[in-house]
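go over whats below:
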Amino acid sequence: ILIRVGILSVTKARQIRKYVFVGCFVIAAIVTPPDVLSQTMLAIPLYILYELGIIFSLITQSEPVKAQN
C-alpha cells in the first residue's frame, strides 16, 4: 500500500528488508505466547506477505508512457 500511494519506493523497500525481517519477529514476540514455534509461525508469514507486496508492486508498477511521433 505504501508503494502504491507513493510514500515508499520499491528500491527503499528492498533496502530495508533486514529491518522488516527483525520487525516481524519483534511483532510476533509481542503478540504470541512466549514459545519460539508460535512466534516463528507468525513471523514467517508476515515476512512472506512483505515480499509478496514488493513483487506485486513490481508487476503492477506502471512504466512511463513513451511519446509517439
Observations:
- The chain has one domain: 2-58.
